[in-house]
Design a protein that fits this description.
The complex is a heterodimer. Helix content of chain A is about 85%, strand content about 0%. By secondary structure, chain A is mainly alpha-helical. Chain B is α/β, with parallel strands linked by helices. Chain B is globular, with a radius of gyration of 18 Å. Classes of the chains: A mainly alpha, B alpha/beta.
Chain lengths: ~230, ~240
């Protein structure tokens, strides 16, 4: 028993304390969160834009050309793995320009997320009762006024839990950022493993950190859902 | 005020309106009745072009609006209030917000003017205490009274009512009809699609019977109900009265 404890303490020391190896994890976490947050912002912005284009086309038949490109975008992004998109963006699109790896990762994950956000938001817009559009029109509001003051606020509320979920999914997806040598959380743990030849502790630590963040986020999503549900009942 | 000429409307193969020509004058209260599927709601919805006619003309205040550009159309709709069967209040806004949104965003009133107008209208429909509530906190009858107030906030020339009491519990029908009566007494031009025969008898200046996409018979309520001529109308009245 004592020997086992001693062994564990050694491994723990080697993995986290020696040569300040814990910094691989904290720096990695910092990069992971940076990429996730900015990718989410980009994804939301672009995703909303695409959703508005697509649903405007579905509702009014306008914006044919934009809708055409939006559909191609969605097909390509949702039809190829995010790792491949990441590699293409870094090694092909930015082949001849020196660009920050984190920036490339934000771009790749943001563009990827946008496709999923777009479909979430579009479903939210289409789920708003057509009577809301009619009531807006009947009052003399134009399409964009009806959209921005009446439909989008309701759609946004409908899809808020799904959007929050997309945030959680994205956080985990960024773990492939190591493919372009971004020192994210996963890569940090893997670097420790490579230095110490000790796989168990660093990888379990990485998994635990992801799990804890996801659990915290899930907790907030659940609370959000409950609050929204309560609002509907009032 | 509104005239329609040879108004036709089809949904795909289905012909809903088969060439209706009618004129609605200022101050008239036209009540449209008829069996379901007769095209009465479609007729009403064509008047403010929520439905685009397949052929025919809609003329509002002397202007042919059938093929109006979106901007003119929106401008025209500001003058045509509409009340829906399912209220269609905006659930994301308070009652005050529901009433003031359009006048303010369209630049017709300042926020303060719209607030004053909203309070005046809420007093009229007896719901001043609900100004800060949300639609989901209201009963069906209250929602419809708010929907009427919301339309009136635009100072419309004419009010269109699309089965305003059909989605209500029976005990709430009265409160909505009495507001519509009040409105009629104030001289508002109204077109009402309804199944409320009592309302038609009491308030209408003209009752119109529609069936199979045509206007089969119309007239002043006394003559219309007392001495119906069209067999379809006789049959219909025998079922509903």
């Amino acid at each position: 028993m004592e020997i086992a404890l001693k062994e564990f303490a050694d491994k723990f020391y080697k993995t986290f304390i020696q040569e300040d190896r814990w910094k691989y994890l904290t720096n990695g976490l910092k990069n992971t969160l940076t990429i996730t947050v900015f990718a989410v912002l980009l994804g939301m912005l672009l995703g909303f834009l695409i959703a508005i284009i697509r649903s405007t086309h579905d509702k009014t038949g306008k914006l044919k050309v934009l809708n055409f490109f939006a559909k191609i975008y969605l097909t390509v992004i949702r039809g190829t793995p995010v790792v491949v998109q990441l590699l293409i963006i870094y090694f092909v699109i930015f082949a001849s320009v020196q660009v920050d790896k984190i920036f490339a990762a934000v771009l790749a994950f943001g563009l990827n997320s946008a496709a999923y956000v777009a479909e979430i938001v579009r479903s939210g817009i289409m789920a708003v009762d057509n009577g809301q559009f009619e009531a807006g029109s009947a009052l003399g509001l134009n399409y964009s006024q009806t959209m921005s003051y009446i439909v989008l606020p309701q759609a946004f509320k409908n899809v808020l839990p799904s959007l929050a979920n997309e945030f959680i999914v994205l956080l985990k997806e960024t773990s492939v950022a190591g493919y372009i040598a971004v020192q994210d959380l996963t890569k940090g743990g893997d670097t420790i493993r490579a230095n110490t030849y000790e796989p168990f502790l660093p990888l379990i630590a990485v998994a635990l950190i992801y799990l804890i963040i996801v659990m915290i986020l899930t907790h907030f999503v659940t609370r959000l859902e409950r609050r929204l549900a309560a609002n509907d009942k009032r | 005020m509104i005239s329609v000429e040879k108004l036709c409307k089809s949904f795909g193969e289905l012909e809903i309106l088969k060439g209706i020509t009618e004129t609605i004058d200022k101050g008239e209260k036209v009540v449209v009745i008829g069996p379901s599927g007769s095209g009465k709601s479609t007729f009403l919805r064509c008047l403010n072009l929520l439905e685009k006619p397949t052929s025919g003309k809609i003329i509002f205040n002397g202007v042919d609006i059938t093929h109006a550009k979106e901007k003119e159309l929106n401008h025209m709709r500001q003058k045509m209030g509409m009340v829906f069967q399912h209220f269609n209040l905006f659930p994301n806004l308070t009652i005050r917000g529901n009433i003031t949104l359009a006048p303010v965003k369209l630049g017709l009133m300042t926020k303060d003017e719209a607030d004053t107008k909203a309070e005046e209208l809420l007093r009229m429909v007896g719901l001043l205490d609900k100004a800060e509530n949300y639609p989901s906190q209201l009963s069906g009858g209250q929602k419809q009274r708010i929907a009427i107030a919301r339309s009136l906030a635009m100072n419309p020339d004419v009010m269109l009512f699309d089965e305003p009491t059909s989605a209500l519990d029976p005990e709430m029908v009265g409160e909505v009809l009495s507001i519509m009566k009040e409105l009629a007494e104030e001289g508002m031009t109204m077109v009402v699609v309804t199944h409320e025969m009592g309302f038609a008898r009491e308030v209408a200046s003209r009752v119109m019977f529609m069936a199979d996409g045509n206007v089969m018979e119309q007239g002043a309520p006394d003559e219309f109900f007392g001495n119906p001529k069209n067999p379809r109308l006789k049959d219909f009245l025998s079922k509903v009265l």
